[in-house]
């Protein structure tokens, strides 16, 4: 196979028939190259790199800090079993509590929110990380597309290689910004912000992009982003996190100002700006989780975060 044929084969593998739009100038892309601004989507190791040089420079410090912190926390593994067990089984034993929350959110999403979505539907996995949700969705019969900034092979999109022996076809992976998605309009039945919406710099722009990419009647879902009843509690959480990161990792991880958390007021502002309506779903995360607000109050601590699922439908 010649170099050009190899490139085309790699493109077919990574894109899987998904129509593209230039993330730099928003022009439709017929193949991998934008005729308007000369931006090219590069396919390397099964990942479609759709991050412009300007965006890459903007996010470079954030990505460096994020990867350093995650590595320090012991994220990822060399074992296929680790990835294939997620989110139900954390064989590393390092983050079992977090994965327990992810598992219950995912089960609720599939059984309650995607129940009426036909198998074979395209679903955007925004903030896919190591690709665990895309893997689970593919096993359930959907056609996921994983999107993230991080591409390393332990905690980023490169880790998707661990799933390929259990899937008939590897799901497409894109390195891209959630506020500048490289996809043409209206080709996904749902878009899920997978524990990632709180990383958005401009949450209205990110939500608009997700809405643009889903079909009329399709869903945009925010999963596993912390919610607080009081704005002050969210600000305090961010301050505590900055201090903890500085002490443990030598960086405050605040090179980019991100959303950080949700409140009812922020959700209302999004409803007004995008003319949408949020349906709020509250999965059961267990008695210990439910008791956290009471325990915090008795101990004189700030309110703990809550996790909910927020669903907005695109108008017909």
From TrEMBL:
<dbReference type="GO" id="GO:0008757">
    <property type="term" value="F:S-adenosylmethionine-dependent methyltransferase activity"/>
</dbReference>
<dbReference type="Pfam" id="PF08241">
    <property type="entry name" value="Methyltransf_11"/>
</dbReference>
<keyword id="KW-0808">Transferase</keyword>
<dbReference type="GO" id="GO:0032259">
    <property type="term" value="P:methylation"/>
</dbReference>
<dbReference type="InterPro" id="IPR013216">
    <property type="entry name" value="Methyltransf_11"/>
</dbReference>
<feature type="domain" description="Methyltransferase type 11">
    <location>
        <begin position="124"/>
        <end position="222"/>
    </location>
</feature>
<dbReference type="InterPro" id="IPR029063">
    <property type="entry name" value="SAM-dependent_MTases_sf"/>
</dbReference>
<keyword id="KW-0489">Methyltransferase</keyword>
<protein>
    <submittedName>
        <fullName>Class I SAM-dependent methyltransferase</fullName>
    </submittedName>
</protein>
């Amino acid at each position: 196979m010649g170099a050009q044929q190899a490139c085309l084969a790699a493109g077919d593998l990574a894109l899987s028939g998904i129509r593209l739009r230039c993330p730099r100038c928003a022009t439709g892309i017929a193949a991998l190259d934008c005729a308007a601004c000369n931006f090219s989507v590069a396919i390397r190791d099964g990942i479609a790199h759709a991050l412009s040089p300007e965006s890459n420079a903007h996010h470079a410090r954030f990505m460096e800090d994020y990867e350093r912190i995650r590595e320090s926390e012991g994220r990822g593994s060399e074992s296929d079993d680790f990835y294939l067990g997620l989110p139900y089984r954390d064989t590393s034993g390092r983050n079992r509590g977090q994965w327990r929350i992810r598992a219950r959110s995912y089960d609720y999403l599939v059984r309650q929110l995607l129940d009426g979505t036909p198998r074979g539907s395209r679903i955007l996995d925004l903030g896919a990380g190591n690709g665990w949700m895309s893997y689970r969705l593919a096993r359930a019969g959907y056609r996921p597309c994983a999107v993230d900034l991080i591409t390393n092979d332990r905690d980023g999109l490169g880790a998707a290689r661990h799933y390929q022996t259990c899937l008939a076809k590897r799901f497409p992976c894109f390195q891209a910004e959630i506020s500048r998605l490289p996809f043409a309009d209206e080709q996904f039945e749902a878009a899920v912000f997978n524990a990632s919406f709180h990383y958005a710099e401009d949450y209205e722009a990110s939500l608009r992009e997700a809405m643009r990419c889903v079909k009329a009647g399709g869903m945009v879902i925010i999963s596993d982003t912390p919610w607080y009843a009081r704005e002050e509690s969210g600000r305090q959480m961010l301050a505590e996190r900055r201090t903890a990161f500085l002490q443990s990792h030598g960086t405050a991880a605040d090179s980019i100002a991100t959303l950080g958390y949700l409140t009812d007021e922020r959700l209302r502002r999004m409803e007004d700006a995008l003319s949408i309506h949020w349906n709020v779903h509250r999965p059961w995360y267990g008695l210990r989780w439910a008791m956290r607000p009471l325990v915090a109050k008795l101990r004189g601590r700030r309110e703990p975060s809550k996790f909910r699922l927020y669903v907005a439908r695109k108008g017909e």
